[in-house]
Design goal:
2 copies of one chain form a homodimer. Helix content of chain A is 23%, strand content 27%. Chain A has 235 residues and is α+β, with helices and mostly antiparallel strands. The first copy, chain A, folds into 2 domains: 132 residues, Nucleoside Triphosphate Pyrophosphohydrolase (Alpha-Beta Complex); 66 residues, Arc Repressor Mutant, subunit A (Orthogonal Bundle). In chain A, strand 1 and strand 2 form a beta hairpin. Chains A and B meet through helix 1, strand 5, helix 2, helix 3 and helix 4 of A and helix 1, strand 5, helix 2, helix 3 and helix 4 of B. Chain A binds a DNA duplex (27 and 27 nucleotides) through helix 4. Chains A, B: Keywords: Hydrolase.
Chain lengths: 235, 235
DNA sequence: TCAAAAGTGTTTCCACTACACCCATGA
DNA sequence: TCATGGGTGTAGTGGAAACACTTTTGA
């Protein structure tokens, strides 16, 4: 059974980032257009080879800073290893993929061959990068429900309706501003800053500004069900 | 900034499995005692080098089958890549770690240097394997709440109280049999088999047997909160 | 005074917990 | 008939959704 298996003593390893941001009501990802074959003119995720003295997380942060000038990443987490032997043509390369988030108010300066693309309308992607983007989107959507990860997409200060747009774009369905406010407030995630915004020309009550109380990801709903007993024993 | 980074053209990659099982009320993991340095006599996770023509998941399943005769793994999922440059002494090796589950009724034949250990009382572990085991346990506990992953720990047929023991061991706190039954029933995860067990010598009502309706992992509670609107629009 | 946008009060619903109670068996 | 373990009925609680209503502004 094992006779056909020849262990690789060594093989290449790259790191890839699905950098997500919300802008103008849609969730978008940072892609880079390949100039050369293979897969010339297809769009691929930023990243590159793992360095000798860095772990995968340091590596992806370094490469983002170097290659696409994204230094203000507000959240980074590993997605998975992509390891199909034929995932890229030529010598085998494993990839560790990351989900990275950038707050919606930032506009990092991008190299000319790099651009944001709406996740709902991806261009032709290279290799397995399309699948990685979908994994990233799904991970983000899941975590929007049971963590405070929204902080990583939001600007430092925001109104509830701005936050509603942001959550709606990330989740892919319309969120109620009323209920969003209460859900986050119940969990103690929101702090009023005391500031308000001027209403638009059409009038309306000025909106209060808020900030997120935490600036690191925290699981806010560890037990959807099967909570530990509050007191005494059960059953 | 990048001048100090010398990309590895190639480096070694291993796969490691945290194989978990519930037995006698405790969650345990399969470990293998290292005979040789480095870290001789410490306990390590089963696994080995990635083969040339396999992806990481095929690799871990192959290695489990070959090395520790665990062929009846009911669930496999990637945990993470462990990539600290000094995670093992000597030439650098990246590791992709897996969570694997074995149903509680199975007793795979083990090589002499391999044994189960309660996760709450781990022996001295090698390299970063202790951290990997904890990650596996945490992942399992989280998924017990919002997926049907219990199916992978349970025998094909079980009573509710047996299932209660199993969930309690996996979660680390006492679960109510009454509520466990209802939570799983509400989600349509349980099917009565029609069989009953004989009561013990001390009497008692015979217990009905159940099975899990699904034998693959399914997310049963995608939205702890912020559910999509059932009908009409919101806000 | 009206329209628009923000924010609050309140109702309804439902899932989960907790616990009392009933059921079926062995001795 | 009693002890024992299995199983069900049901009240209470709390979080979330939905929606009506109030507040605050510009025109």
């Amino acid at each position: 059974m094992a006779d056909a298996i020849t262990p690789h003593s060594a093989l290449a390893h790259e790191v890839l980032a699905a950098v997500l941001q919300v802008r103008e009501g849609s969730l978008r990802v940072l892609l880079w257009e390949r100039a050369r074959e293979p897969h010339a003119h297809r769009w691929s995720l930023p990243g590159g080879r793992l360095g000798a003295d860095e772990d995968v997380e340091s590596s992806i942060l370094r490469q983002l800073a170097e290659k696409v000038d994204v230094r203000q990443v507000s959240h980074v987490e590993q997605l998975a290893v992509f390891s199909a032997p034929d995932r890229v043509p030529g010598p085998r390369v494993l990839a560790t993929a990351f989900l990275c988030l950038v707050p919606s108010h930032l506009d990092p300066e991008l190299p000319p061959d790099t651009a944001w693309h709406a996740i709902d309308a991806l261009p032709r992607t290279a290799f397995d990068h399309g699948a990685i983007v979908l994994r990233a989107r799904n991970r983000l959507r899941a975590k929007m429900s049971y963590t405070n990860i929204g902080f990583a997409l939001a600007p430092p200060e925001f109104t509830i309706s701005a936050l509603r747009e942001l959550y709606s774009a990330a989740l892919g369905y319309r969120v109620s501003a009323t209920n969003l406010q209460r859900v986050l407030a119940r969990r103690g995630l929101l702090e009023p800053t005391g500031h308000t915004t001027k209403p638009g020309r059409s009038g309306g009550r000025p909106a209060a500004q808020f900030r997120f109380a935490e600036t690191a990801m925290v699981v806010t709903d560890p037990f959807a069900v099967l909570r530990p007993p509050s007191t005494g024993r059960t059953g």
